[in-house]
Amino acid sequence: MTRLRPTVAEIVEQTLALYEDLDFSYVRAWKSKSTSRRAVGFMPVYMPREIIHAAGMLPVGVMGGGDRLDIIKGDAYFQSYLCHIPRSTIELALSHRLDSLDGMVFPSICDVIRNLSGMWKLLFPEKMARYLDFPQNFDPALGGRFYRQELESLRSALSELNALPPQDSALTHSICLFNKNRRLVKALYDLRASKPWLVPTYEAYLLLRAGNILDVEEHTQLLEDYLVRVESEPRKPMDNIRVIVVGSFCEQPPLGLILTLERAGCYIVDDDFVLASRWITADISKTGDPLEALVEAYLKNSTFHSSKFEGSTPKWRHLIEQVKARQADGVVFAAPSFCDPALLDQPQYEKGLEEAGIAHTTFKYAENTGQFQNIREQIGTFSDSLKLWSEAP
Amino acid sequence: MTTPPAARPPEIHKEPSMLLQKNMLADYFTRVSKAREEGKKIAYTFVPGNLTELLHAFDVVPVYPEINALQNGMRKRSAKFILDAEKIGHSEDVCTYVKADLGMLLNGNVGPTGEIIPEPDILLLSYTGCFTFMKWFEILKQHYPKAEVVMLQVPYQGEGTPTPAMREYIVRQLRESVIPAFERISGHRFEEDRLREQLRRSAEAEEGLVFALQSARRRPSPIDAYFGGVYYIGPMFTAFRGTPECVDYYDTLREEIQNRIDAHAGPITPEGPMAEEKYRLIVEGPPNWTHFREFWKLFYDEGAVVVASTYTKVGGLYDQGFRHNPDDPLGTLADYCMGCYTNLNLPTRVELIEKYIRDFEADGFLINSIKSCNSFSSGQLLILRELERRTGKPGGFFESDLVDPRYFSAANIKNRLESYLQMLDQRRSQAVA
Ligand code: SF4
Ligand code: SF4
Q1: Residue B165 touches chain A, beta carbons under 8 Å
Q2: Rounded alpha-carbon distances, angstroms, from residue B281 to A200, B233, B278
Q3: Which residues of A7-17 are buried (b: 16+ CB within 10 A; e: fewer)?
Q4: Ligand 2 atom nearest residue B48's Cα
């Protein structure tokens, strides 16, 4: 029997339901199929999900609670001058919504997430909680070697969860599955950049978020379906400006904010949302030692980012290249309040953009921001001014 | 955050060690300002996980932007600097040490003593215990394009203990990347014996610091291990470790404290010897520098003595037994870098403070939560709960900032401290009843 591809509307409905399900029911259902199944959560920004997958487990991206989670206990754990994502993540856990996760990985991105790994150890001692350090030295013999040891240690911690020894063949298989997934995510981003009227960011974003939770093969299928179906959607180009959104890599903007940007006249042609699915920018080698392949991919083919040290090259160089490659008209800095990594980078980016004559605008948000009127006006003005500029004789 | 001080508030009551430190600092800033003329290379670097002995072994002069920021905070110059950094686009949300430093740079890089701090030849990024360090030096690199950035990544003790892999990573970076870079830039060959000599003196001075810190176990405590403590760590955590002056400083300090012990005397405050010791407290978190004396006064006026603090461990946990080991020069630098306080995970921090509460027979503990510093502050409310649960001792929670005076409210802190101490009184009277 041939499988009927879901329509775009059905895909959006499915991904929205996944996005809104703060109880992670999908994870529960996935685990219920076998008693040996385990699920392991990870925080932004990047996680080599292949390692979790190869251990026979579901990697689950936890990106805070968004704007639909009431914070009842979480605020008591964080001062007012810290960002919002750690409090909503703690809230999810204390309200038992993360009970289906057998462990959590806290990748090295900033001191808030780093310290959250220790809080997890104190609050949930029965659960695996690992901090995963990334190399800041990109020499394979130094940083590469260290990162490999980190991954080996993570691998053995995972194998304690289901008492299955790690297998290289399984890891190679996982690498292949995620390579395919990444290629389709890239295709989605490329299509959005070339025909932004066809792929609203609202939809692309939901698809990406679905990849945080769905089994990789299921997600790959969904991406394929969407890419085929969306081509025949009756969508028409509008007089929007093309922008890149920067700074939203960890605590995510509420969906309403993404919609606001689009409605205020922007086509988002690139962004740094949900980076775990796009961190590695080329296929990971499926030959040779698979752990080494993951290391090499990190060292050589990972995207530019605030959490990676740029000692010698100016911070803004990659962003300007991205602006050119995506033919963007401008950059929107949208960072969560109190996000040191994003906010400390911003003036550097701005300097570079100004020197290159690229327009930009800036605002801050929290994942639970509910009012977008000011942002709508600001972005509307930004968009109008860019249009005027481009129409000027 | 991270830093010790050695400051010079006006009209302060000064002990010999303070006068000595004052002169050491003045000499140091003069040395820094003249380094170029003398053909010396200059490295900007951070306090936690600093490689001062290694820099000395190359005859490179270290400059610590954190120290400049805190010194400018104490001299009430940081407010303008922070505003200047915000004017060029830096967010009000981020670490104020970075902004105070940038503001100083924007105003001609005139250091805390009025002498110009020369541009760096090297930006030695000892990335230990604080993510912001990386951002800070990326920003500085843009201002000093000719400076070479040398990165030493020190892995975080996420699982509570340093592993051999982490140690090996640091040693290899030192050997294969940091030392060759210093050889190239300084023009001096690396001489291990020179480093060993420095490390030997470091270990000697470290004994003196530990003597000072441990003296607070006595009743009355002869020192204040937070407000006084930040002076005591000054030479050790900065440009002096490994030098003969540093050894001399700790000899002087030891003698001074021994005299107080012999006399059953309490700490010396800026207004002279402290009266009766009424409360013994532990403090977690850095101090506020812009109102440092005012902050301290709130404590000594009430007879509250800090007997141990975590801030005095940002440059190493010598009190827990670590000493630089001249027989394993690179390995010991690795151990040192990994062991700094902000590189410890949260459970280890809780255990350490719990130990302090017990070992120093504290009546309670306070947390000074610093708006600037995610490295210290994130998770402190859980530290508070855990410690109360484990020790049964009450905790107090303050909020301020390091060098941004906008976030220091003396009235608020005074109220909190007073009600906290009243609560301690009540507990005592209940215990007696
Ligand atoms: S939002 Fe920014 S500061 Fe907060 S946890 Fe994420 S990266 Fe860290
Ligand atoms: S975040 Fe804290 S540790 Fe880091 S530079 Fe700022 S004050 Fe220092």
Answers
A1: yes
A2: 58, 19, 10
A3: ebeebbebbbe
A4: 3
The H or E element that residue A128 is part of is strand A128-132
Quick one: three-class SS letters along B321-389? CCCCCCCCHHHHHHHHHHCCHHHECHHHHHHHHHHHHHHCCCCEEEEEEECCCHHHHCCHHHHHHHHHH
SS3 label, residue B143: helix
Q: CA dist A63 to A38, A209, A393, B108, Å?
A: 19, 9, 45, 43
Mutation target to probe the A interface, by most A beta carbons within 10 A, among B382, B386, B398, B404 is B382
Could you tell me the sign of the dihedral formed by the alpha carbons of A134, A137, A138, A144, in that order? negative
Between B192-214 and B329-338, two packed helices, what is the crossing angle to 10 degrees? 40
φ, ψ at A6 (rounded to 5°): -65, 155
Structural contact between residues A133 and A105, judged by C-beta atoms closer than 8 angstroms: no
Q: Does the pLDDT value for residue B389 go beyond 60?
A: yes
CB count in 10 Å sphere of residue A387:
15
Question: Distance (Å, rounded) from C-alpha B325 to C-alpha B332?
Answer: 6
**CB within 8 Å of chain B, chain A residues 268-307:** 306-307
Nearest to B401 by CA among B80, B97, B105, B98: B97
Judge: B127–A86 Cβ closer than 8 Å, yes or no. no
- Return the SS3 of A369: coil
A134-147 pLDDT, tens digit each? 999 999 999 999 99
Write the pLDDT tens digit of every residue in B306-318. Answer: 999 999 999 999 9
Percent of chain A residues topping a pLDDT of 90:
96
A246-269 pLDDT, tens digit each: 999 999 999 999 999 999 999 999
Please report the pLDDT score of residue A1 as a whole number: 60
Following CA atoms A82, A84, A86, A87 in sequence, which dihedral angle do they give, to the nearest 10 degrees?
100
Token output for A202: 């609202």
A370 alpha-carbon distance from chain centroid: 21
3-state SS assignment for residue B391: helix
What was the pLDDT predicted at A392?
Answer: 54
Residues B349-356, mean pLDDT to the nearest whole number: 98
Of residues A1 and A109, the one with the higher pLDDT is A109
CB–CB of B66/B315 below 8 Å?
Answer: no
Q: Do B311 and B232 meet the contact criterion of CB atoms below 8 Å apart?
A: no
pLDDT over 80 (residue A216): yes
Selected residue with higher pLDDT from B9 and A341? A341
A112/B98 touch (CB, cutoff 8 Å), yes or no: no
User: Ligand 2 in contact with B100 (CB < 6 A)?
Assistant: no
Q: Does B132 touch chain A (CB under 8 A)?
A: yes
What is the rounded average pLDDT of the residues B386-407? 96
Q: For residue B265, with 0-12 CB atoms within 10 Å meaning exposed, 13-18 middle and 19 or more buried, which class applies?
A: middle
Question: Residue holding tokens 């929205």?
Answer: A16
Backbone angles phi, psi at A253, to 5 degrees: -70, 145
* pLDDT interval class at B2 (50, 70, 90): very low
Backbone angles phi, psi at A198, to 5 degrees: -80, -35
Average pLDDT over chain B, rounded to an integer? 95
Q: What is the mean pLDDT of chain A?
A: 96
Q: Which of B94, B374, B381 sits opposite A112 (nearest CB)?
A: B374
Task: Give ligand 1 pocket residues (Cβ under 6 A).
Answer: A 83, 85-86, 109-110, 112-113, 250-251, 336, 339-342
Chain centre distance of CA B348: 19
Structural domains of chain B sorted by starting position, each given as residue range(s) with its CATH number in brackets: 16-193 (3.40.50.11890), 195-432 (3.40.50.11900)
B1 CB within 6 A, ligand 2: yes
For residue B312, how far is its CA from the centre of ligand 2 (angstroms)?
14
pLDDT tens digits for range B75-131: 999 999 999 999 999 999 999 999 999 999 999 999 888 899 999 999 999 999 999
